[in-house]
Design brief:
The chain is an all-alpha fold and 335 residues long. The protein has 11 helices and 2 strands; from the N terminus they run αααααααββαααα.
Length: 335
């Protein structure tokens, strides 16, 4: 690459970042307004007695089958932080690392990324002795792993023409969009496999590339995680809706929730599923199923996560007290 090309690339990247910084609030505001309008329309049209009837009539087998996939989704997601441990080389134990990831992810789902995914990770890992730079890399690796699987799955859905027919997109448009997503994901694997510099330059930052083995593990775990979550919903819908349509709705609602920044994607998940599954099942069926999904995948694990968080905090306090006691004895010992 010539010096002129490098300068052009840098100036283009700066221009994109500058445009995003200046317009980010506008885009976020537009998304929020659109979400509020959809939610208001949805709330006005809902027949809540029918929704409660769907919940009452939901068979126990559907609840039990879906509940069996919940640990699969959480275990695969918490394993993202084990990838971060390998990537950064920190020495925390497997159980401790997965406990921090589980608490952070569960609170993230229910209360938002700033409280869970970011806030709790920095608090707990910091108290466990990790430097801020290491925690930042673990967080970045977890986020990237999550969205890497998103690219593989959504790219595959587009490439296989499995996107919802309500979008009314041509086969060519679907193939191009799917191919673009798959190319991005495959390019990451290629960089990890063949890059000689072993560093990826993003703006002013140089990011070390993991090995191909780690990149493949990221892809597999993330695809399994997204697939298990979609499986929970598919089973709660009692197989009345195709798995690919449920997966597509989940992926779209996830990106919409990430853009709008509503904790737990509250209302966004419901609006997307109602819109995309309207031709398959009734609105009451969709909302009743999503209430069961929130209970099974959000609230039940949150109760466990809060208990685990209290235990982690108590353990950290005991460790801090012992350290202070040892320090006090050493300073009071005769010279």
């Amino acid at each position: 690459m010539t010096e002129r090309s490098r300068l052009f690339q840098r100036s283009s990247w700066r221009g994109v970042r500058h445009f995003w910084k200046r317009t980010r609030r506008i885009w976020t505001g537009l998304f929020m307004v659109a979400a509020i309008v959809l939610l208001a329309k949805l709330a006005r049209d809902v027949q809540w007695h029918e929704v409660w009837q769907v919940l009452r009539d939901m068979p126990n087998t559907a609840l039990l089958e879906s509940a069996c996939l919940v640990p699969v989704a959480y275990l695969t997601y918490t394993a993202f932080d084990l990838i971060g441990r390998t990537y950064t080389g920190h020495k925390l134990g497997t159980g401790t690392t997965m406990a921090v990831a589980f608490v952070s992810y569960t609170v993230n789902l229910n209360l938002g990324a700033l409280v869970g995914g970011v806030g709790l990770r920095f608090r707990l890992y910091g108290k466990l002795g990790l430097r801020l730079s290491v925690i930042s890399k673990i967080l970045a690796m977890s986020i990237f792993t999550n969205w890497l699987g998103y690219l593989w799955l959504f790219g595959g859905l587009f490439a296989l023409h499995q996107a919802p027919t309500a979008w009314q997109l041509s086969d060519t448009a679907l193939q191009i969009a799917g191919a673009a997503m798959l190319i991005v994901a495959a390019s990451y694997l290629a960089l990890c496999a063949f890059s000689r510099r072993r560093r990826l330059r993003i703006g002013k930052h140089r990011v070390p590339l993991p090995s191909l083995r780690i990149a493949l593990l990221q892809s597999v775990l993330s695809v399994l995680c997204w697939g298990a979550i979609a499986g929970i919903l598919y089973l709660l819908f009692e197989r009345q809706v195709s798995y690919t349509l449920v997966l597509a709705a989940l992926l779209i609602s996830s990106i919409a929730g990430a853009l709008i920044h509503i904790p737990g994607g509250l209302g966004v998940l419901e609006a997307v599923f109602v819109a995309m599954l309207a031709s398959e099942v009734s609105q009451a069926q969709v909302l009743g199923t999503l209430l069961a999904y929130r209970a099974v995948y959000y609230l039940a694990p949150l109760a466990i996560a809060l208990l685990l968080y209290v235990m982690l905090e108590a353990r950290l306090r005991r460790g801090g007290s012992r350290s202070q006691a040892r320090a006090g004895k050493s300073t009071s010992a005769p010279g």
